[in-house]
User: Which sequence fits this backbone?
């Protein structure tokens, strides 16, 4: 997979892949206009939405209604480093959701590919390459 990143102006940075564009910006305090989420907010939201795909798939496979189900994602930041030290995903279900499926619902969310990559991060290589101007 290749993602092309460009700079459309201001503090905006966009990523293009397949037929999609993911727009990002910084808050006004961060030098941007706040016209889009920050790259870090999109990164964090990818965890909750990825878990959500697995929860949705689990419910669909069993014919379980998804009405009233939602995932609340909370981050705890280490005050010394400013880094996130813990991420909690709380799957909220309505009272009518069958008790017997709740542990399996958690197991399905744990299959999230984003979570697995965060637990076993890839190696990074950052390089520069000169290209001819158009």
Assistant:
């Amino acid at each position: 997979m290749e993602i092309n990143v460009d700079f459309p102006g201001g503090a905006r940075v966009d990523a293009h892949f397949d037929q999609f564009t993911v727009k990002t910006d910084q808050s006004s305090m961060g030098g941007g206009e706040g016209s889009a989420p920050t790259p870090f907010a999109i990164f964090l939201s990818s965890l909750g939405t990825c878990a959500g795909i697995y929860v949705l798939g689990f419910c669909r496979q069993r014919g379980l209604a998804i009405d009233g189900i939602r995932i609340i994602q909370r981050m705890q930041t280490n005050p010394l480093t400013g880094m996130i030290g813990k991420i909690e995903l709380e799957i909220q279900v309505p009272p009518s959701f069958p008790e017997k499926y709740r542990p399996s619902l958690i197991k399905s969310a744990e299959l999230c590919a984003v979570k697995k990559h965060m637990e076993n991060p890839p190696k990074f290589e950052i390089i520069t390459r000169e290209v001819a101007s158009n």
